[in-house]
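Response to reviewer comment R2.3. The reviewers asked that we include at least one raw input/output pair. We reproduce the pair for MFS transporter here without editing.
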Amino acid sequence: MSLSSATQVMSTPELLEQILAALPMRDLLVNAPLVSRTWRAITLLSTIQQALFFQPAPSISPRVLNPLLSESFPPFFASYDKKGWESSVETIMRMPWSKAPDAFRRREASWRRMLVRQPPAQSLVVKQTSGGMAGSYDREGALKDPSLSMAVLYDLTLQFVDGDTSFHFMWHDESAAEGDLTLNVSTGVGCESDGERIEKKYFSDAANFVKVSFGEWEGDEISRFY
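Raw output as returned:
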């Protein structure tokens, strides 16, 4: 391509938009807006915002997990099978950004606005198990959100994860009847916990309480065995 042809391409917004949309997500998010005012303006177009997981893609689009979030928050996106991928306080504190959390904690940090999936996940089921000397109890709740963001997913998870708690996510395909994803949380109780607690630096400065509508606790009581 000649210099004049390249210049013409770069000065044509429609062509430049297609080029930027094909960039790796990190370059598109961090570097492209710094090149010029024109490039920054194009990154604000709907197609680019969808590629950055800031705006919802059409519902007919193939399901794709956010690759940048998957890289930065692996416990939330790791595959889970019967062999288990149980995450915990320790797992959260070992995430890639944990050695330099100041940028992550900022109220305006871009990760909080990102959708966890395209097209957006809209329903999350929370299955909570609590077990110990007195028996085992379970309850289930649901969260409906038209565009589930990482802010909601992260803040919600940290509400449950502490001490002797483990968790894992299960991401469902289109055929699943129980929602787009499930958060399974398991906590051991009945004895003094020596588990780690999440340090303050792992909470966002913009953290919010996420309300989930739960059903009643159900399970076995120790009195049934006497």
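The first helix runs from residue 3 to 10. The CA atoms of residues 73 and 95 lie 6 Å apart. Further pairs are available on request from the corresponding author.
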